[in-house]
Prior knowledge:
heterodimer, A: mainly alpha, 69% helix, B: mainly alpha, 4 domains, two-stranded antiparallel sheet, two-stranded antiparallel ribbon, 4 strands, globular
Amino acid sequence: MSGATVTAGAVQVVGGIALAPLLPGLVQHWKARLQGRRGPTPLQPYRELRRLWGKSAVTIEGTTAVYRLAPALAAASIGVAILIVPVAARAPDWGVGHDALALAGVLALARFAVAVAAWDVANGFALMGASRDLSISVFVEATLVLALAVAALVTGTTALPEVIAGTAGAGVWSQPALALGAIAFALVVVAETGRQPVDNPDTHLELTMIHEGPLLEYAGRDLAYLQWAAAARHWLVLVIAAQVFLPHPHGVWWQLALLPVTLAALCGALALAETLVAKMRILLVPRLLAVGAFAALLGIAAWLAASP
Amino acid sequence: MTSAALVAGLSAIGVGGVAAAGRATFRAGLILQAAGAAGLALAGFWAVAAGADAGSPFTSALDPRFGIDGLSGLFLGTLGLIAAPALVFSLRYLEPTGRGRAVGALTGAFVLAMAGVLCARDPFTFLAGWELMTLLPAAVILVARAGDRVARNTVFVYLAITHLGGAGTWIAVLLLAGAGAIGDPSALATGSGLQVAVALTALVGMGTKAGLLPLHVWLPRAHPIAPAPISALMSGVMIKVSIYALVRVLVEWTGVLPVWLGGLVLAIGAVSAVGGVVYALFQHDLKRLLALHSIENVGIIVLGIGACLILRARGAEAWAAFALGAALLHTVNHAIFKALLFLGAGAFERAVGSLELDRLGGLLRRMPWTGGAFLVGAMAIAGLPPLNGFASEWLTLQALLHVPAYGGAGDAIAGALALAALAATAALAVFCFVKVVGLVLLGPPRRQAAAEAVEAPASMRAALVVLAAVCVALGLVPGLLFGALAELAPWQASVPARAGLQLPGTGTLPAPGIAVALVALTAGLWLLRGRRSAAPVPSWACGQLVGPRLAWTSAGFTKPLRLILEAILRPQREIVVRYEASVVQEVTYSGRVPHLIDENLYRPVVRLALAAAGRARRLQSGRLGAYVAYLVGLVVVLLAAARVGALG
Lengths: 308, 648
């Protein structure tokens, strides 16, 4: 294994686990600045995780092992997803493969675990959030698979390290297919990270929550796992956005060096979008995602027109 | 070795079936049948692994012949693998009353009829087995539900639709036999009228029996009213036998089909997959919901077959074999988890007395074994890692992704749309089974009967646990079976057998690695979490106590999607408010999602047919004079025709 592969592996695991909470922290921080507030520091998510780690979990009357295991299972699936998604064109073999479509399955498992736990506590607010999350996920998943299909067709593989290598270079968007795929993936990023206009991460009104709803009945380390998983989702989709759909350099070292810059820029873009756009009516979200799916379909058609 | 085990297994099922009809030998007969089914499973999977054919080859002649090859072996093995637990389940599910004994005996006959279709090597035996396979479940339902008018009506619908559509099977098989093309793909030229006619009639005939949209209407009606073991066999195996026939005709006997036919198969698969799961989502009856999921899964299988046909027409034979392997793997997988879910539903019905989703709840605590196995089955059918449904859905996605890579713009859009449809289907299935698991297994019991449910007897539990274990095992090492399945393609294709799935041009799916990583990480995080926990508290609902009146329902949970899809599904809702002296006394709400195909395709046809029958009845006045007049008229017309020369 070369030095580049080892370093890429280290960035993948350490970044995915330890740096992930920084991403939502940065978004919140910059959003506050853009809105003229001082806002929390970018390290606020770490403080919350530390606080939660010291608190005891709660048990809800009448729940089963499903409720108690769900946070660990959700965090574990996101952990596997972190192992699947490489940060550069080379990655060590963690034994879970690097397949783009396998990622969709692992993310679905995390969603299943949290939604099923909402039924276990039988709390109306938790179920409301779970039901909305699952309704939107239908459209998110179709758009996600189509966007990944564009990248896979352009590069001829669904192995993510090779996809990253195949789309490298400053002229990524000279291929209209990838530019259209990027539009689709941008909407997936917004939906998967639970940001406006799909969801409002700042809301504390149960009736408007989507992703926060099913977390209502958790506390302590359980809640810490779930909040970390939400932060790690930011890491997963933003890394793919940076290394597949945005211009990125050829060499592995260059890719690793530029990744923090691109991630920060993407967090800035999310903060800007949250400042400019209001939350959408939930029933209109599928239309927004349909725009993405349609863009990806156009991308596939464009790829065909361009390929010999 | 294969034929000996096969013959022994089949005779054991036959003898067991006869024995099950006797009062004293009822349970012994069922056990003998189960043992025979296990032998069938061994013989079938051995034929797949060894690749050795036995018995006679296919013939277009009409004298009865029997034989077995890899493809037959796969489906026979699946039949045995489902029938054995289903029969063990029947031991306590069926009572040795007259009705129970008749069902026990007919189960054996049903299994034998399906084995007959799979082993038939000539058109006559095939069609005879096909008809028996259709009629026997109808007989079982009539016996098990004697005196139930609704059931009788449903059986009539089932027989009418499967026979109307089933005519397609007869036409396809007889056309093939006439052309001498059974077992000989070189007999039909690519793109010839005969080839297209055979393919289209087979698609109608076998598609009806497989439950493909829009000929599926019998399936969600007939499957739920059968006894649970028969439902498991119908959904798990019978519709798979139609898939077997479709693969034989479309992939093997008709040679290379034109691309547009592959596209048509792909479109039918996509519509069935999405349509099946969307309507399943809005069901309130567990068995009906499961039956609609069979339509979804048959759609996924047919997506794989469609990808196989397109890729083969484009000359990408290796990927065509992969697509076929994906379809066949999903066939086996669906058979296993659907049988598990139907048997689980049977156990719940026995314990609670109802399968109305809003009347169950909390059963995981009352029935941990049955509930646990059911949870595994629900996760498998939802396509979640590390279970078997995930592996075959991943393979199907990969096969669809390669459809655009080998053809023109039409292929690309078809492949991309199918890809999006499959991704949405997978997400919808997760949604649906979150609802099922939540309403059936979790939360507070919604009725007294659910609160007092007791765990199923040992034999029923054993059947469920074995099927759940197979789901886990096939999810761990899907590659071992997939390699053999891709090699069942009539053209040369070789896939090395590995535990995980490795296809060129993909990131590979090391299923064992993913499973180990998931379990290890979950266990590690669970240990890290520690046991420190505050005293149990009730669920929080803005300060009010969560009582039965606050319980969420099946309709409530799926409401966002119902609103999103309102323009397509056109759900109906009705609110009746009763006033007394302008004070609201009572508010009743009822809502339902009508089935669009039932309402817009079948209703008008049935209405037209009834109207035409009404007209025709006026001719039958029963008066002698009228009949004499008809005869005289006929003679006059015939004479006139002869005079003009129209009658030669």
